[in-house]
Fold this protein.
Amino acid sequence: MNSVAETLGLHRLAVEDAVAAHQRPKLERYADDQLFMVLKTLWYVDKDDAVETGEIAIFVGKHYVVTVRHGAGSELGVTRRELEEHTEILGHGPYAVLYRVCDRVVDADEDVASELQTDVDEIEMSVFSDRRSGGDARRIYTLKRELSEFRRAVVPLREPLTRFAQRNVAGMPADAATFFRDVADHVIRVHDQVESLDTLLSSAHDAYVARISVQQNDDMRKISAWVAIAAVPTMIAGVYGMNFENMPELTWRYGYFLVVGVMVTACSLMYRAFKRSGWL
């Protein structure tokens, strides 16, 4: 990289940013004929519900384009072959290459947004289903964290692409703005989709918490109903278990059957009442 920087006269600070990576998306100008742009690349790992990030640093001059890629996202070999096949785009010079790289990165962002949309739909179905799932809260938190990572890659990209679309970059060919407007529109669409997904996840989390509260209330009502039913025979058995001598029922021939009948009848009536009220 040092030899390339010396040959092309790349700015030292830009080279350091390109090599060190972990930069936020940005557009900077070094000298009148040199642009430096950083893009965040994204790809989705479905089994982990994880958004992985990489980085592409791009140097653009009058007669050259240099890219430095970190991570596995957005393979640029395909972009180069596409440009070689479409000479009408390549005829716009270095900015055509910059456009195709930006377009490919944003297309990958749209693919990741679609994968996240699928996962959010699954979360909504799980939250509102009849089955109980203890992993919903953990998955909601994981997806919100990945959406935050997604937002950090997409939101800062809107400003530089808008500058390209509005021809606010010196040295840029006038007819190149049309291509960048298309990419800028896609970025805005992805950003809006991410914001919508974040809102849906927040709503799903609130619904999950409300559902857990309702389930806990239902469980407590069932427990209370069974405790009340069990209290009747317990009380009767406790009375006759005190072993007082002056208890005529103890020596009565049918005393045992009467007490058991009272227990069964009382428990049956209480069970029926709780069942009607929805507690059981």
Observations:
- The mean pLDDT is 83.
- Residues 265 and 271 are 10 Å apart (CA to CA).
- The first helix runs from residue 2 to 8.
- The two ends are 73 Å apart (CA to CA).
